[in-house]
Every structure is written in C-alpha cells, then in structure tokens.
C-alpha cells in the first residue's frame, strides 16, 4: 500500500507545491505533502531507474560542450535572422541512434532540441530513429555534419550516463552517411 508512495517524487511534488504557493509555512508544506501523496496514490509513477550511473567527468564534458554549442548556435541563428539574405526552409533529417535505452535517447533528443536551429520532430522508440528539422541546411555535406553532431552528442551522453550491465561501445568518429539512414530535403 505505501509502496506506491515513492519518497523522492513525493518530496519533489511537495517542493513544487510550496513554490507555487509562494510561501514556506507549515501548512503549505503539509498540504504539499498531502497533495503529492494523493497524486502518487491515484497516479502511481513507474519505479525510478537505479541502473543509470552518472560519471562526473563525462557529465562535465557534456554540460560544457552543450553550453558551447548553445552559444555558437544562438549566434548563428541570430545572424541568419539579421542577414539580408533569406533563410532556406531547412531539411528533415533521420538519425539512427545507437543508444538502446529510452532515458539516454530522451536526453539526446532534449539536448538536440534545446540547441537553436534544430527541432526534434519525432523519436521512434522501436527503431531508435530521431527525426529532426535543421534550419537553413539543405546540402548533403551539411546534413552529414548535423548527423555527426547528433552522434557526437550521443557519445557524450553515453560517457556521462552509463547503464549497468551493458558493455561500453567505442565512439564513432567518421563523418559519413550510413546506408540505413535517409536524407529528406
């Protein structure tokens, strides 16, 4: 009966409640815990994944490179908005992800989508294909570069977050189109 009430999600929901009420009082904390318990009772969450391990150096490299990509892409998108030449429509790009667990695929999709100039359209959980739209990219060489960026991000996510019981694989460093991937202009 109490197994449905997981401590960490319950505390997280209670903190959100307190933040939304705008004041930290005994009653707001109490009602936050009560609302959290009711939510978790009626809408139980799946068990938290305990097989994911965070590697601090890999995480630091992932965050550092993400922030760098964020700044560079922001400047590039700002330039595309301000330059006198019109912006091309862009392209849809399918990228076959090599990661085989949902959590790390979602991290790759979110980090890809947070960088200006790219929007994740779909992540197929059965085929591990990430479909994204890239701004102002239409040439095959540019598409190959974007695909390589996603694969490099995937490698950084794999170094930052590992799943127990799965062998580590070597990162792919080639910039080329694979036969199972399709480019859609």
From TrEMBL:
It is a multi-pass membrane protein. It is found in: Cell membrane. Signal peptide: none annotated. InterPro entries: Cation_antiport_E. The chain crosses the membrane at residues 12-43, 55-79. Keywords: Cell membrane, Membrane, Transmembrane, Transmembrane helix. PANTHER family: NA(+)/H(+) ANTIPORTER SUBUNIT E1, NA(+)_H(+) ANTIPORTER SUBUNIT E1. Belongs to the CPA3 antiporters (TC 2.A.63) subunit E family. This is Na+/H+ antiporter subunit E.
């Amino acid at each position: 009966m109490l197994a449905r009430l997981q401590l960490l999600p319950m505390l997280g929901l209670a903190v959100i409640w307190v933040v939304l009420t705008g004041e930290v009082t005994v009653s707001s904390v109490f009602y936050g815990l009560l609302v959290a318990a009711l939510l978790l009772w009626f809408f139980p969450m799946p068990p938290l994944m305990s097989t994911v391990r965070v590697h601090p150096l890999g995480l630091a490299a992932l965050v550092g490179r993400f922030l760098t990509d964020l700044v560079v892409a922001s400047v590039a998108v700002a330039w595309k908005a301000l330059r006198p030449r019109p912006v091309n429509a862009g392209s849809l790009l399918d990228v076959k992800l090599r990661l085989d667990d949902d959590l790390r695929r979602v991290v790759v999709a979110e980090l890809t989508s947070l960088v200006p100039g790219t929007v994740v359209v779909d992540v197929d959980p059965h085929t591990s294909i990430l479909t994204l739209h890239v701004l102002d990219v239409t040439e095959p060489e540019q598409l190959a570069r974007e695909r390589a960026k996603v694969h490099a991000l995937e490698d950084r996510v794999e170094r930052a977050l590992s799943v127990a019981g799965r062998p580590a694989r070597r990162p792919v460093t080639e910039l080329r189109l694979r036969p199972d991937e399709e480019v859609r202009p």
